[in-house]
Amino acid sequence: MDFAFTEEQELMRATVREFCEKEITSEKIREWEETLDFMPQDVWDKAAAMGLFAASIPEEYGGEGADMVTAMVGFEEISKASTAVALGVGATIGFGTRPIVELGTGEQKKEFLPQIAEGKLRFALALTEPAGGTDILGAISTYADSDGDDFVINGQKTYITGAHVADYLTTVAITDRENTKRAHALSIIMVPADTPGIEIRTIPKVSTHCCGSCEIFYGDVRVPKTNLLGTLNNGWYDVLSTLNPERIGVAMISVGLAERVFEDCLAYSKQREAFGKPIGQFMIIQHYLADMAVGIENARNLVYKCAWLADSGRPYHVEATMAGLYASQMALDAATVGMEIFGGYGVTMEADIQRYWRDSQQMVFSPISNEMSKNFIAQCYGLPKSF
Ligand SMILES: Cc1cc2nc3c(=O)[nH]c(=O)nc-3n(C[C@H](O)[C@H](O)[C@H](O)COP(=O)(O)OP(=O)(O)OC[C@H]3O[C@@H](n4cnc5c(N)ncnc54)[C@H](O)[C@@H]3O)c2cc1C
């Protein structure tokens, strides 16, 4: 086994780190979180110019054809800089690039991938519905009915990350009304967000202010059938296959967040004094930090292992679920302890730790709740379905 990163990967890390140190500073994030519901356009454009979106796109479509480990090295740096920015760019990579690379027709790849590589298109995944996200098959009631060469979509989605700034809504809808087995009745359709009949509203939330989440209302939304992604009525299985890379990405967002928590807590524990000495001299603070360091190391290794499994063509759905579960809980625990280390200062809006803590609440149930992840992992070891 070789845990070392290649020269190319180290170059990726250095490039993205330098970009973040200049463009996604703590000062900027504090301002964006107060004033914006998505990262500024100029930072998006600079990220595209740096090659952030091109990295995961095959060379024949204008990308760099980087493997998953290399892409994750860059994404770790973005995640460390800002959870909201990572979610913002991650949505397009996870719900645009990866499904199109995996499921798209030759025409779709030619049309969309070069534009994504240049940062000209944004995507959002519209899967969750108001009746429930965990039991999506039981909850889904958005229909895409066939009408000549078009689908006509009616329904509602909720909590959709970045829908308000997306060019395309990667929408999962029922395309076979007759089939009572929902898993065989869904399809994925790339819906241009400016299609008449679409209404999008952002939902105020506690976490990741500068990456808005939205409700989407579809009223007789007409989309050409050429926008079908993957196979008609196989959308459930198609979407599941593209969600595995997303789980690795979201796990990395949690790792990045925890790394930031650790850095800030470490610095504060050296600087803040009580009883005439730095609080970092007290054993309990040292143990808090040691626990964080161990958690980060474990989660980070698991995430990179998933990326390595993906790159080497091995299955990784169980590990990806473990990574999401472990990393999100670890980040939440680290941020909660971090709040304690910062004492009174932690609850003031001046301190970044409160933002890390708020942001860490989100990853334990999105994209999949940790309870459901545990159900799934247990089933993978042969236990019966518990629900
Ligand atoms: C900020 C944010 C961004 C999001 N972004 C997107 C997005 O871009 N696209 C998208 O499609 N969705 C998105 N989601 C939705 C997200 O995937 C769902 O919130 C998630 O799947 C959980 O669904 P729910 O919120 O409806 O909770 P529910 O399904 O109502 O679950 C509520 C609770 O019950 C528990 N529960 C339910 N069933 C079981 C069971 N069988 N066993 C044990 N416990 C169970 C859950 O674990 C949870 O704790 C986002 C959500 C948020 C909040």
Describe this structure in words.
The chain has three domains: 7-122, Acyl-CoA dehydrogenase/oxidase, N-terminal domain (Butyryl-Coa Dehydrogenase, subunit A, domain 1), CATH 1.10.540; 125-233, Butyryl-CoA Dehydrogenase, subunit A, domain 2 (Beta Barrel); 237-380, Butyryl-CoA Dehydrogenase, subunit A, domain 3, CATH 1.20.140. 53% of the residues lie in helices and 15% in strands. With 387 residues, it is α+β, with helices and mostly antiparallel strands. The mean pLDDT is 97. The chain has a four-stranded mixed β-sheet with strand order 1-4-5-8, with helices on one face. The chain has a four-stranded antiparallel β-sheet with strand order 2-3-7-6, covered by helices on one side. A two-stranded antiparallel ribbon has the order 9-10. The protein binds flavin-adenine dinucleotide. Flavin-adenine dinucleotide (FAD) is lined by residues 124-128, 132-135, 159-161, 205, 213, 362, 365-369, 371-372, 375, 387.
